[in-house]
């Protein structure tokens, strides 16, 4: 058993080097089975190790957090962070299986449930109006209110998208709704913002730009804003706006110097487009 540093701190080149040296010392072979037992960072890191150590070994993901159950453990994306930029280097490498047991949710503090709720919000806004209606009417967030059907929907939704676009060249980019600004906020305010918290804030930014282009109504934007404001603290971005924009420039979806962005065509439907730095800056300052 190899225990990793908590959260995103695990996803570093130095930890990767340490783990690979440990595996060599233990004479681990290519016929090993890697079991990635933990949250999203464990899935990301463990998948990267399994996919690269001796050119690849089998792995199984056992997600123990809501975020990992509905997102990180599924789809075969594995990565490390470099220079504070999220998921700079990585691989596409699927696990042999994902073993999900929702009893783990009862072991989590509310902060970790909220971490997963950021990704759950994303799935609702891009894929299921009825799920969004359920979420926006929640009067509390805890393990008890997380429906197994929500986890099943998210997992199956992602699996269908990944099956059609494994290498993330088209439709799979929709799964990054809220992530362009979210990753930038997460990096700029590290370690204060968890990934899911940052994604929730990123959903507000994307919703504002969607509203600004008249794709969604002011009422829909206000509902998204109010939901996120109710459950998450808002970052003060004014002093870090240039740093946040710089991180957005590093986003992997970008092409030809343009910031690619996922917007809502309506609640439950999303599409890929581009946005200007000025528009993104306006959205960040308006939202927070």
Short descriptors:
288 residues, alpha/beta, Rossmann fold, Dehydroquinate synthase-like, alpha domain, 2 domains, 3-stranded parallel β-sheet, two-stranded antiparallel ribbon, 11 helices, 15% strand
Characterization of this structure:
This protein is α/β, with parallel strands linked by helices and 288 residues long. It is built from 11 helices and 7 strands. The strands form 3 sheets. It has a 3-stranded parallel beta sheet with strand order 1-2-5. A two-stranded antiparallel sheet has the order 3-4. The chain has a two-stranded antiparallel sheet with strand order 6-7.
N-to-C CA distance: 42 Å
Q: N-to-C SSE series?
A: HEHEHEEEHHHHHHHEEH
| Helix count from the secondary structure assignment | 11
Task: Describe the global form.
Answer: globular
Short description:
The chain is built from eleven helices and seven strands. With 288 residues, the protein is an alpha/beta fold. A hairpin with a 2-residue loop joins β3 (77-82) and β4.
Task: Break the fold down into its secondary structure elements and pairings.
Elements: H1 13-25, E1 33-38, H2 40-52, E2 58-63, H3 66-72, E3 77-82, E4 85-92, E5 97-98, H4 110-127, H5 129-136, H6 148-164, H7 179-188, H8 195-212, H9 218-231, H10 241-249, E6 259-266, E7 269-275, H11 277-287
Parallel strand pairs: 1-2, 2-5
Antiparallel strand pairs: 3-4, 6-7
Helix pairs in contact: 2-3, 3-4, 3-6, 4-5, 4-8, 7-8, 7-10, 8-9, 8-11
